[in-house]
Amino acid sequence: MDKKELFRQIVEFRHACKLFDKDKIIPKEDLFYILDMGRLSPSSFGMEGWKFLAIQNPTLKEKLKPVCWNQPQITTCSDLIVILAAIDRLKPKNGIVAEKFARRGLPKEKYEAYLNVYSDFLKDEIEDDDKMFCWSSKQTYLAAMSLMLAAASIGVDSCPIEGFEREKVENILGIDTKKYRVSLLLPLGYRVNPQPKHLREKLEDIVEFII
Ligand SMILES: Cc1cc2nc3c(=O)[nH]c(=O)nc-3n(C[C@H](O)[C@H](O)[C@H](O)COP(=O)(O)O)c2cc1C
């Protein structure tokens, strides 16, 4: 199949699935494929400020549902991916940032220069965890898109979910919020109902060419 057509089919297959078939479990190797595609997502300065929790435990899903606006996707999905946005590990002082620059194999002066640009760019975020979460969370959304499209490419449905009470979800999951905060929930599984039509504006209404 033509590559453009193939990609269009993947994009069109993805929709915000509202109800999953509880009895259909994603095979392990498919789940690993999806998560691995998320791992390959781009991130600012290459910092990869995310972590993915894959929750399969039904009791834990039941516990989470009431703090996720009682959305049925939480308990009917096969795997509930909780996308965490890093906080502390993105601060230069802890050494992880330096390691990320060092792994590029740059000469020392160059990687120190990168580290300075990074520290300067993020000077407000380094002092304020809410601001760091904003920056870090934006990037996890890119990873979420990679996860959703990878899932769609192998017939797995998904639904990005920001309808949840973050602090309560973090509490239930026992997250150390100095290290990570919950950015987005992404249930994965198999649809019960046929997908509705995508409602979108026309291309000419959202694109402006500047020549
Ligand atoms: C960041 C984000 C958060 C969302 N949160 C929810 C949610 O909490 N519950 C839900 O059912 N859908 C949620 N959605 C899905 C959107 O409602 C959906 O993508 C949009 O209506 C377009 O429909 P489609 O994705 O099926 O084309 C969210 C989408 C995004 C991108």
Element layout with pairings:
Blueprint: H1 3-13, H2 28-39, E1 50-55, H3 58-64, H4 73-76, E2 79-86, H5 96-102, H6 108-121, H7 123-127, H8 129-153, E3 157-158, H9 166-173, E4 180-189, H10 203-206
Antiparallel strand pairs: 1-2, 2-4, 3-4
Helix pairs in contact: 1-8, 2-8, 5-6
The structure holds flavin mononucleotide (FMN).
Using brief descriptors, characterize the structure shown.
211 residues, 4-stranded antiparallel beta sheet, 10 helices, 4 strands
Account of the 3D structure:
This protein is an alpha+beta fold and 211 residues long. Helix content is 46%, strand content 12%. It contains ten helices and four strands; from the N terminus they run ααβααβααααβαβα. The protein has helices at residues 3-13, 28-39, 58-64, 73-76, 96-102, 108-121, 123-127, 129-153, 166-173, 203-206, and strands spanning 50-55, 79-86, 157-158, 180-189. Strands 1-2-4-3 form a four-stranded antiparallel β-sheet, sandwiched between helices. Helix 5 (96-102) crosses helix 6. The longest helix is centred in the last third of the chain and has 25 residues, at 129-153. It is globular. It binds flavin mononucleotide. Flavin mononucleotide is lined by residues 15-16, 18, 71, 159-163, 198.
What's this, in brief?
Helices cover 46% and strands 12% of the residues. The protein has 10 helices and 4 strands, in the order ααβααβααααβαβα. Flavin mononucleotide (FMN) binds at residues 15-16, 18, 71, 159-163, 198.
